[in-house]
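Exercise 7.
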Amino acid sequence: MSDRYPMTVRGEGLLREELAELKGVRRPKVIEAIAEAREHGDLKENAEYHAAREQQSFIEGRIKEIEGKLSLAQVIDVTRLKPSGKVVFGVTVELLDLDTDEKVTYQIVGDDEADFAEGRISFNSPVAKAIIGKSEGDDVSVDTPGGGKEYEIATVKYA
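Solution. The predicted structure, written as tokens, is:
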């Protein structure tokens, strides 16, 4: 794993919100559920206790994971970069499919932020890897799981 973990300002905010929810709401609830289950007696056959402990383990693991990512975060605010027409992490890119003349729009984001249905692709995806470093007007070939694609980079937005 690299020393830094790139993410957008939005991605950092979402992780911080999830961390606050886990620490401030879900952790106290599961601690309360464990205490309540203990009051019911024999812990060997207490399904509520075991379920609550499993949930606690999941919550604590996720807290550690998020804290680790935030400690290594390299937050990139694309709005503070000087627009150059070059594709970099965080930009929104409109691509023209040269075979179908259809346009697709993607924002290049960190792994945790990626959501293809919402137009956010990971910087590790085949499309992002093919277009990062290229400029508006460039043609690119992308090897995707569905086969090769040819795109023209129509616009690059630093917003």
